[in-house]
Amino acid sequence: MILACNNINKAFGTAQILSGVSFHINEKEKAAIVGINGAGKSTLLKIIMKEMQSDEGEIILSKGSTIGYLAQHQNLASENSILSEMLTVKQDIIDLDANIRCLEHEMKHVEGEKLNQMLSTYTRLMHEFEIKNGYAYQSEVTGILKGLGFGEEEFDKKVNTLSGGQKTRIALGKLLLSKPDIILLDEPTNHLDLISIAWLETFLLNYNGAVIVVAHDRYFLDKVVSKVVELDNTKCTTFEGNYSAYAAKKSMLQNAMLKQYLNQQQEIKHQEEVIAKLRSFNREKSIKRAESREKMLDKIERVDRPLEHTQMHFNLEPRILSGNDVLTVTGLRKSYDKLLLFNELSFDIKRSEKVAIIGNNGTGKTTILKIINSQVEADGGEVRLGTKVKVGYYDQEHQVLDPDKTLFDELQDTYPHMDNTSIRNILAAFLFTEDDVFKRIKDISGGERGHVSLAKLMLSEANLLILDEPTNHLDITSKEILENAINHYSGTVLYVSHDRYFINKTATRILDLTEQTLLNYIGNYDYYLEKKPEVEAAYLKKTSSMNASSSNRPGAFPAAFPTSSLSTNSTDADSENKQNWQQQKEEQAKTRKRKNDLKKTEDEIHELELRNEEIDELLTKEEVFTNVQKLIELNEEKKSIEIRLEQLLEQWELLASEE
Fold it and tell me: Which of 118, 132, 419, 454 is the least buried, fewest Cβ under 10 Å from its Cβ?
């Protein structure tokens, strides 16, 4: 064990945040702290780091262990370049290297005993240099910077000129480079693109120390952690496994607790009705029986109803159905000064598709959405909306909200036909009640602004939703509610997101913006990861072939501006692209059939098990077990059910193993 939290209590005024929080972290263990916004996750990290005092309890760190912390908001101020700032972590190695070089120079000019002394010192320093990995520290620094998304051309930039997100990445890099025995990370993925997040996952999995992470990125938690510490209603519960395992266990636990509570309430109600009936007879014996039952009822240890957090609830539904061809983009081009974002992008979206655009930071994903929504003008190309298409837009910066308006006015001004009660009801569904509705937009949190934007999106009744990072600032519960709303939405969705769990749950197709072009994947994020090497290899093969043939052809499309998809204008390429599309469609059809067969099997098992229970109940009745013929019939039926159940269970196991 490297860290233990024992009976941590913390309150702010009358608001209790943490009550009796206890858990431990083992050496090299990777753990997550989860909970809704305001549950006390960041507070707990600060208490562990002794940046905040707990009201009660103790933090125990194993003797000699070092600890490092990345806060959610960094205020890194430095006149150093990015590279120089990172190298400050390795200052001891740099100084050691300077001493060795100095000693080498001095040894050239001495001899005898003094030389022997210097050689002894030199040997000791060289040994220390090797132990500290001195020969590789520069490549280690470079590797971490590149892993966190900095190109070598950026290494000389001054830290003070960087954005808040870039400074946070530098702070994270310095922490990883310092290699403490235990790392505390508060929302480390907030300012990283997909490639950098994947790099960080690998780094932490292979990290030779313990890690505690607070994050809303469920895909990241699934990959990295093997323990989940949940903060809920000031209390702490520990679950073994990754986030998905935790979510499943938590759901089972909540359902079991609710079932236990409801069953007990039903029994209490039944006993109270019996007691009331006995008393109504108004006889001595019946009253004594009623009193006896009351005493038994008083001795029952009452089960508390499981606490359920207030959650926003909404559904997305278009007012009218669009045509089948919802969006057609042809030859789209956009650059800023000399920076070309993309050229000759072409794609189309059909009704009911849920399409995610992914790619590295700065490739132009948000720009594509803004061009489609007429917020940014393209340099070339055409965007065409289909018949009866009505667009609803969600902006990650919430610029569609007026910061000086109240929440109530924001909705009323956008939808003037709505009465006051309707507006209040809508805002209440998004957790704004009473005087909350008169708060100004600029005075509420990023997550709360997200809720207001979602409210406007719901009221728009649009049949094409264009969403830019819709899960930013939302807690995990809100993300799950949004996922459910999108999955049940009958309209069409085009969105940009770096939330891989969200993409995996909602996307039916992925467009990967890479090398100024779009690569098409017909499936969710797991499918994208599986097919990515194959699709990229096919793309590189095609572009190499095109470049080779174009070098001798006047006016050919230059290699720097690849075409918009894997297909070219040639018949062979079109045929191959259609074949790939058909193969992906066939795979999806097989998957659907397997899921349908699995569902049918499960349904039949359930029906047979219910019938089995019915037979067991019948066999206890006197009119049945005294009737020989009926008894034989039921026993025969029960035997055939058992045989069929065995067959179905084997069939289910086979189908499940193919998933």
Answer: 419
Both tokens of residue 347? 């794609």
Segment 235-258 mean pLDDT: 89
By C-alpha distance, which of 342, 339, 322 is closest to 330?
Answer: 342
- Architecture, CATH, for domain 589-657: Orthogonal Bundle (1.10)
Whole-number pLDDT of residue 71: 83
The domain segmentation of the chain, as residue ranges, is 248-299, 325-586, 589-657
d(CA 260, CA 252): 12
Q: What element of type H or E holds 219? A: helix 218-224
* Count of CA atoms in the C-beta half-sphere (13 A) of 161: 8
* Under 8 Å between Cβ of 268 and 297: yes
- Picking from 171, 262, 183, the residue whose alpha carbon sits closest to that of residue 224 is 183
* Residue position matching structure tokens 């000019």: 109
- pLDDT tops 60 at residue 567: no
Over residues 342-388, the pLDDT tens digits come to 888 999 999 999 999 998 877 889 899 999 998 899 999 999 999 99
Does the pLDDT at position 229 exceed 90? Answer: yes
What are the beta bridge partners of residue 21?
A: 8
Homologous superfamily of 325-586 in CATH?
Answer: P-loop containing nucleotide triphosphate hydrolases (3.40.50.300)
For residue range 36-63, what is the model confidence (pLDDT) as tens digits? 877 889 899 999 999 999 999 999 999 9
Half-sphere exposure of 451 (CA within 13 A, CB side): 25
> Per the structure block, which two tokens stand in for 150?
């900095």
Question: What are the φ and ψ backbone dihedral angles of 138, each rounded to 5 degrees?
Answer: -70, -40
3-class SS at 374? coil
**Rounded distance, CA 588 to CA 591, Å?**
5
Eight-state DSSP code of residue 48: H
pLDDT tier for residue 652 given thresholds of 50, 70 and 90: low
Task: Give backbone dihedrals phi and psi of 154, rounded to 5 degrees, phi first.
Answer: -95, -10
Written as one string, the DSSP assignment of 302-361 is PPPPPP-----------SSPPPSEEEEEEEEEEEETTEEEEEEEEEEEETT-EEEEEE-T
Are 44 and 8 a contacting pair, CB within 8 Å? Answer: yes
Residue with tokens 């005092």: 53
Which string of DSSP letters, residue by residue, matches 239-261? EES-HHHHHHHHHHHHHHHHHHH
Tell me if 528 sits within 8 A of 501, measured CB to CB. no
Q: Name every residue whose Cβ is closer than 8 Å to that of residue 499 and which is 6 or more positions away in sequence.
A: 217, 219, 469, 471, 479
**Residue 357 near residue 498 (C-beta atoms within 8 A):** no
Across 212-226, average pLDDT = 91
DSSP secondary structure of 535-598? HHHHHHHHHHHHHHHHTTSTTPPPTTS--SSS--SSHHHHHHHHHHHHHHHHHHHHHHHHHHHH
Q: By C-alpha distance, which of 365, 366, 355, 358 is closest to 512?
A: 358
* pLDDT band at 570; cut points 50, 70, 90: very low
Structure tokens belonging to residue 195? 């490639």
